[in-house]
Amino acid sequence: MRTCHHASLVAVVALAGCSENRTSGPPPATPDSVVTDLTEVTGRPATSDTVKKVPYDEEHAQRQLKRAGLAAGTCNAATGADGIARGPWGKSVVKVTIGRNGHALEVVVAPDLEGTPTGQCVKNAFSGLIFLPYAAPSDAMVEWSLELKEPEKSKPRADDAG
User: Fold this and answer.
1) CA distances from 7 to 1, 19, 21 (A)
2) Cut 0.70: pTM above it
3) Nearest Cα to 126, choosing from 50, 86, 66?
4) How far apart are CA 142 and CA 65, in angstroms?
5) How far apart are CA 132 and CA 100, in angstroms?
6) Which residues of 23-50 are buried (b: 16+ CB within 10 A; e: fewer)?
7) In 3D, which of 162, 133, 147 has the Cα closest to residue 91?
8) pLDDT greater than 70 at residue 113
9) Among candidates 106, 109, 107, which has minimal Cα distance to 91?
10) CATH of region 56-150, choose from 1.20.144, 3.40.50, 3.30.2420, 3.20.20
């Protein structure tokens, strides 16, 4: 009977060890897969050696930032737990640090937006951006201006008036 418990314990340990080896999902990125992806995006042939020489693509970055800016334009209606949009509204600036790996590493909103539902919405709009990877001695930091307009107050309907 003691042997059965020992065998069960070995089977559980063996199964636990197997759970770490996952075979589903995409394989991890390798330098060669990054080269293939970059070639598809840029249309330029690339090799593992030339990936290190790809410059920062400002035009692509501007397109991505514009897309995020449009999404952030809807943040004017972001509400707190009480369901009321309190802003702040007006012109603002977002600073995005773009990593050389192509990911938005940090998003900083203006101090008046910090800690507000509107500010969190703006951060979310810019945080998920993916840029083309590039070679440079340091990460790029860009500023993006946006304007958040105060949402129109909903007008009471005629059937609510009375």
Assistant:
1) 10, 19, 22
2) no
3) 66
4) 9
5) 8
6) eeeeeeeeeeebbeebeeeeeeebeeee
7) 147
8) yes
9) 109
10) 3.30.2420
Identity of residue 46: A
DSSP 108-147: EE-TTTTTSHHHHHHHHHHHT-B------SS-EEEEEEEE
Output the pLDDT for position 98. 94
User: HEC profile for 37-102?
Assistant: HHHHHHCCCCCHHHHCCCCCCHHHHHHHHHHHHHHHHHHHHCECCCCCECCCCEEEEEEEEECCCC
pLDDT in tens, 15-48: 333 333 333 334 444 444 444 455 555 565 555 5
pLDDT of res. 23 = 34
Tokens representing residue 18 in the block: 């197997």
Whether residue 70 is predicted with pLDDT greater than 60 in this model: the reply is: yes
Determine the Cα–Cα distance for residues 162 and 148; give it in Å rounded to an integer. Answer: 34
